[in-house]
Amino acid sequence: MKLSFELSKKGRKGYTLPELDTPKTEIPTEYLRKNSPRLPELGEVDVVRHFINLSNLNYNIDRNFYPLGSCTMKYNPKINEYTSRIQGLNEIHPLQPESTVQGALQILFELSEWLKEISGMKEVSLQPVAGAHSEFTALLVVKKYFEKKGEKRTKILIPDSAHGTNPASAVIAGFTPVQIQSNAKGMIDPAELEKVMDEDTACVMFTMPNTLGMFESDISQLCDIIHRKGGLVYMDGANLNAFLGILKPADIGVDIMHFNLHKTFSTPHGTGGPGGGGVGVVDKLKDFLPVPKVIKKGETFALDYKFPNSIGRVHAFYGNFGVCIKAYTYIKMLGAKGLRKASENAIINANYVLASLKDYYDAPYPIPCMHECVLAGKHGTKTLDIAKRLLDYGMHPPTIYFPLIVHEAIMIEPTETESIDTLNDFIETLITIAKEADTNPDLLKSAPHNTPVGRLDEVKAARELSVNYFNS
Ligand SMILES: *Cc1c(COP(=O)(O)O)cnc(C)c1O
Fold first, then answer.
1. Do 365 and 414 fall within a single domain?
2. DSSP state, 22?
3. Bridge partners of residue 412, in order along the sequence
4. Pair 181, 272 in one domain
5. How many angstroms separate the alpha carbon of residue 335 from the centre of ligand 1?
């Protein structure tokens, strides 16, 4: 495809202005540009076609299967787009008086109530706008909690199967992350945790299910070990879509957790946004959550800032309101039974993929898995080559080279929204690729062959970044 600059034809334009009906005034030359800007000159049709053609190069969940492990690229119901664009929600301003935005406050209030019901947590803040941002917010809450207790705890325990944002958030919040090794089953051994847990440890961060798609089978015992030494249990709940309506994190001993609204509760996301987070806490951590809190007084909703122990604000206004509307719509449409069904389907789909592929790929962890599974190519086939070859078959590859503890990992999350036909297509394609890897490995090494651009030199792209057309 050509750049808009290459399509430019001198004198083409996409606007028509009416005749001047006021006296013409000259702009003083000192305010005028010395050189005209180097902008493409194009007609309206040219511009529309250019951007439509560009957008058609994009891959998205409305186009085909998107099994990106850990990212939960589930289908986003179109009714979410409708509700988030209702004029009365879309065109309000966060500085309007509370009395004029009662509906918006009600949505935020009710969404928090539902997340409390889903998680068993005592209070939920919707202010953070991503998973990582929620982790950071939660760790500030943890820090403040221990400060108020007069305890100095500096360490945070993080399993090696955790999402990469966990150690990053710990460091940014001023803690020292300490890694815990998982065992051959992809889980944490209570004995292993016992060895590292001490009174300098503020909390442990469990991703549940973890990035191997495994649920810690000793979770209650693990939580006890942390609690006995006065620590807190943090749950990275980005993957809550694996057990909605099946288990409440509060019931197994979780003290503080985060939600990924854009993953579990369906908002189109990727490439950095838009996201919606949320932090849930048990009773003893309530006072430390960000302000303002949305409260209900009688039949009226209001913003309350009077929490002297709050960590303060972590975002302008009240978080990403549009994403909250989508999560609200998703939960309202599915209801309690529907949410549970969504999780059950997500788990069945992942297990179906794992069971169907385990003879063609290495499956380092046992069946059953939760909502995602991890494979690796057999006979040393490079994961990158498998992923590139999948593009030739018109499918988005799964997450690759993550989790880090699996060599050449391929991490598949089919999500609940895919039919058996789509899963069968995907499985057959991956089986074909496994066979190609044995019979015609060059086909994989040089893939993709059918895409607008072929195999990119990623090292060169990173080292010699060229994005500035104006200076070229
Ligand atoms: C996606 C994810 C995160 C980070 O969420 P962002 O919204 O991308 O910041 C954290 N933990 C887990 C387990 C995740 O899957």
1. yes
2. S
3. 68, 373
4. yes
5. 24
Residue 131 CA, ligand 1 centroid: distance in Å? 5
Tell me how far the alpha carbon of residue 52 lies from the centroid of ligand 1, in angstroms.
30
In a domain, 61, yes or no: no
Number of H helices, E strands in the chain: 15, 12
CATH number of the domain at 275, please.
3.40.640.10
Whole-angstrom Cα distance, residue 206 to residue 225? Answer: 13
Q: Are residues 104 and 138 in the same domain?
A: yes
Ligand 1 centre from 70 Cα, in Å?
A: 7
Q: Whole-angstrom Cα distance, residue 347 to residue 370?
A: 5
The pLDDT of residue 165 is: 94
Rounded to 10 deg, the angle between the 420-439 and 383-392 helix axes is 120
Global pTM value: 0.91
> Does a structural domain hold residue 415?
yes
Same domain, 313 and 378: no
| 261 and 357 assigned to the same domain | no
- Predicted pLDDT of residue 271: 67
Beta-strand runs (E) in 186-299: 201-207, 232-237, 256-259, 279-281, 293-297
| Spans of the chain below 50 pLDDT | 472
Q: Is 323 in the pocket of ligand 1 (CB under 6 A)?
A: no
Single out the residue in 317, 333, 349 at which a domain terminates: 333
Q: Give the CA distances from residue 265 to residues 118, 244, 328, 334, in Å, rounded to whole numbers and listed in that order.
A: 12, 10, 8, 10
Residue 468 lies in a domain: no
C-beta of 410 in contact with ligand 1 (< 6 A): no
**Total domains, the chain:** 3
Record the tokens describing residue 430, joined without a space: 């991956």
Return the best residue to mutate from 68, 134, 207, 236 for the ligand 1 pocket (most ligand atoms within 8 A of CB).
236
As a whole number of angstroms, the distance between CA 260 and CA 361 comes to 30
At 472 the pLDDT is 45
**169 within some domain:** yes
- Domain range for 452 is 341-460
Residue 143 sits in the same domain as residue 237? yes
